[in-house]
């Protein structure tokens, strides 16, 4: 991994792209869970077998002629500090559970852009992840399948002709695929429709989770929509269904935003203006409050109430204001209050700079 991925706020899924519903869908991800044949699942590995596992994967990666694999770098977690591992969590490249490990056989293969990442010995031996901005599930699936095929040329994977790919958690058995979209739904929340969304999505075999996936809370009106079932479906079935449901949710969110704009314009402008005012004047701000207010600012940008702020800057702030990134920027560990002060500084500087640049372009 280029050291840049630990030292800056950027990952490729932050990029805002026209025509990919990026005003509502922040990013798309496809993850494929794979395990090596005749080796214990990661939670049963001892050091000897763990090292054998990661070395087998490393050899397969090094042998592959594929360019997308050649551009990746391997880091083992015993080489990374707790802070560095937390930075990778905040960029959505590894899970919180994976970050808790610091062994020589837990690791990450990742490219410089952060668009392709392979967790090693998390819940499964391999978790291949492709991230793209906006609603691009088909492209993300193609990326993940290409990497899967390349690694399989040099690996013997745990596969059953009836069950499909064997995984540590039975709910992933089959394709081993989890597809998800990170989606911004402030109008669903403001209008009180979000609970209906939870219910309807569940009935369709999908699930809605918080910003950092399973077991995390929904903050800033950010949600992860993903499939629940992998067995008995093809990868394309899962992709197509999630694409369709995400598209319907996008349409509903747009309709609700329009309704709010028409029926509650003054209240909406007041809410967005207050959020922007607090973020550009606060001296101390917590992470949750900042993400909540940034959601309102994002809504204001998307519906044209706030001008001159780039969506990419808001995506970047989602990562830049998290605890590990603030401490990395400061070059030292910081107490909670210190982080709250630094967070307020970072947000104010970024938003005011964006505003000035937007005004300069309009001149």
Global Rg = 21 Å
Strand order of the largest sheet: 2-3-4-5-1-8-10-9
Strand content: 15-25%
Average pLDDT level: 92
Order of helices and strands: HEHHEHHEEEHEEEHHEEHHHHHH
Assign the CATH topology of the largest domain.
Creatine Kinase, Chain A, domain 2
In the CATH scheme, the class of the largest domain would be: Alpha Beta
Uncertain spans: none
Structural class: alpha+beta
Distance between the termini: 41 Å
Please give the number of β-strands: 10
Helix and strand arrangement:
Layout: H1 4-7, E1 25-34, H2 47-63, H3 67-70, E2 72-76, H4 82-90, H5 96-99, E3 107-111, E4 116-120, E5 126-133, H6 137-152, E6 159-160, E7 164-165, E8 177-184, H7 186-190, H8 194-203, E9 206-209, E10 222-227, H9 235-263, H10 265-279, H11 287-302, H12 311-320, H13 323-330, H14 336-362
Antiparallel strand pairs: 1-5, 1-8, 2-3, 3-4, 4-5, 6-7, 8-10, 9-10
Describe this structure in words.
This protein starts with a helix and ends with a helix. Strands 2-3-4-5-1-8-10-9 form an 8-stranded antiparallel sheet. Strands 6-7 form a two-stranded antiparallel sheet. The protein has helices at 4-7, 47-63, 67-70, 82-90, 96-99, 137-152, 186-190, 194-203, 235-263, 265-279, 287-302, 311-320, 323-330, 336-362, and strands at residues 25-34, 72-76, 107-111, 116-120, 126-133, 159-160, 164-165, 177-184, 206-209, 222-227. It has 2 domains: 4-256, Glutamine synthetase/guanido kinase, catalytic domain (Creatine Kinase, Chain A, domain 2); 264-362, no CATH class. 48% of the residues lie in helices and 15% in strands. The chain contains 14 helices and 10 strands.
């Amino acid at each position: 991994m280029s050291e840049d991925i630990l030292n800056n706020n950027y990952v490729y899924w932050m990029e805002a792209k026209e025509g990919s519903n990026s005003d509502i869908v922040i990013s798309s991800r496809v993850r494929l869970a794979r395990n090596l044949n005749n080796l214990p699942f990661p939670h049963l590995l001892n050091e000897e077998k763990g090292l054998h596992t990661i070395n087998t994967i490393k050899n397969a990666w090094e042998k592959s002629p594929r360019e997308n694999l050649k551009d990746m770098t391997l880091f083992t977690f015993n080489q990374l500090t707790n802070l560095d591992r937390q930075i990778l969590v905040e960029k959505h490249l590894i899970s919180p559970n994976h970050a808790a490990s610091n062994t020589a056989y837990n690791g990450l293969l990742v490219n410089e852009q952060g668009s392709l990442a392979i967790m090693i010995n998390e819940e499964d031996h391999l978790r291949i992840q492709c991230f793209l901005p906006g609603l691009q599930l088909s492209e993300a699936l193609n990326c993940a399948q290409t990497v899967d095929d390349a690694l399989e040329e040099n690996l013997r994977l745990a596969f059953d002709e009836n069950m499909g790919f064997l995984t540590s958690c039975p709910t992933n058995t089959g394709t081993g695929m989890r597809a998800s979209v990170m989606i911004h739904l402030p109008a669903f929340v403001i209008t009180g429709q979000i609970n209906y969304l939870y219910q309807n999505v569940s009935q369709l075999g999908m699930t809605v989770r918080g910003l950092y996936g399973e077991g995390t809370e929904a903050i800033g009106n950010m949600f992860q929509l993903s499939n629940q079932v992998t067995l008995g479906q093809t990868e394309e079935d899962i992709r197509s269904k999630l694409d369709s449901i995400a598209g319907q949710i996008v349409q509903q969110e747009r309709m609700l935003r329009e309704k709010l704009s028409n029926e509650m314009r003054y209240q909406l402008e007041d809410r967005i203006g207050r959020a922007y005012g607090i973020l550009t004047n606060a001296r101390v701000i917590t992470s949750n409050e900042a993400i909540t207010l940034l959601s309102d600012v994002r809504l204001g940008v998307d519906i044209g109430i706030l001008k001159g702020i780039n969506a990419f800057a808001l995506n970047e702030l989602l990562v830049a204001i998290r605890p590990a990134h603030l401490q990395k920027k400061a070059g030292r560990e910081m107490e909670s209050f210190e982080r709250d002060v630094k967070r307020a500084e970072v947000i104010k500087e970024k938003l005011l700079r964006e505003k000035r640049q937007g005004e300069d372009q309009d001149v």
